[in-house]
Amino acid sequence: LEDRVTVAFCSSALSIEAIEQDVELFTPSSRPETVYILTMGALTYTRDESNKVMRHSNALDDLRCGPDQFDSQTVVHVGTWLAEFLLWMPWTYQGTACASKNCEVLAIV
């Protein structure tokens, strides 16, 4: 029974999404419901500079990387988590993630 429950949970909480080049995965104005992991291709992440809190701190952002690794626009590489904070606390997207070439993401709802 436990294996069936695990499979059912994973089937409903995880999905692979194909994102075509130049399509936005999320924007600061979109409703945050999903955490993403880039599994193939490339994304560009652009931080929303109008966010007063984020303008002064790299401490919390949609990308899982340290402050020294982050610019206002960043190429997202395979294996990078986006909006991971959504798993742990109320969150709003802090920037825009856009496919710089065709890509796939693992979506965690």
Question: Overview of this structure, please?
Answer:
The protein is mainly β and 109 residues long. The protein has helices at 2-13, 52-55, and strands at 14-19, 24-26, 35-47, 73-76, 81-82, 95-108. Strands 1, 2, 3, 4, 5 and 6 form a six-stranded antiparallel beta sheet that branches. The chain is globular, with a radius of gyration of 15 Å. The two termini are 23 Å apart. Mean pLDDT is 80; it is low at 53-60 and 65-69.
Question: What's the layout of helices and strands?
Answer:
Layout: H1 2-13, E1 14-19, E2 24-26, E3 35-47, H2 52-55, E4 73-76, E5 81-82, E6 95-108
Antiparallel strand pairs: 1-6, 2-6, 3-4, 3-5, 3-6
- Ends: how far apart? 23 Å
Helix run count: 2
Structural class: mainly beta
Shape: globular
Order of helices and strands: HEEEHEEE
Low-confidence stretches: 53-60, 65-69
Largest sheet: 6 strands, antiparallel
Average residue pLDDT:
80
What Rg, in angstroms, do the CA atoms define? 15 Å
The number of distinct β-strands equals: 6
Percent of residues in beta strands? 35-45%
Helicity, as a percent range: 10-25%
Supply the key terms.
109 residues, mainly beta, 15% helix, six-stranded antiparallel β-sheet
How is this structure best summarized?
The chain is 15% helix and 39% strand. The protein is built from two helices and six strands. The radius of gyration is 15 Å and the shape is globular.
